[in-house]
Design a protein that fits this description.
Radius of gyration: 42 Å
Helix content: 40-55%
Number of helices: 5
Distance between the termini: 128 Å
Order of helices and strands: HHHEEHH
Number of strands: 2
Strand content: under 5%
Largest sheet: 2 strands, antiparallel
Length: 172
Amino acid sequence: MVDKVKQDAATSGFERRDLTSRSVYTFLGALAVAVIAVAVLLGGLYRAMDAFERAHQPPQSPLVQQTQADTREVARDEITTFPQPRLERNERLEINQFRVQEEQTLNSYGWVDQKAGVVRIPIDRAMQLIAQRGLPTTPKVGSVPASETRVENGQTQRPDGSTLPPAKGKKK
């Protein structure tokens, strides 16, 4: 029996119990029609919802000068008056401009607050100054910073533990 099945398969060329090409094409055609029907249905639904939203927009204040009929649209000249944060028009261009501006700020001198005398210096120069001068330190635990009263009374201690002599010439 096995020999007969092998012989039939070799002579016929293909198995006849599979799907016919007609049924495959019918399925693909029905699928295309269904996709087009869904696209048309969704397009109509979105148009109907948009028309509903346009009809039910709240009335604008009479004090606002209306430049467009649709309040959802922002004109190009109104973009600068629109409050922050604004939507990005060109993400790549805007982020590149932002990064260039940051690099320029980090690598240049400038005023942070001119009235208070606060300046900005480049990062490389700041690192050189830190390497030369060191970081600011806090006093040792238990040591008391010098004050006039302590100096006068001879109570101020040096970092090595010895006390400073009382100040001369001060009147109490």
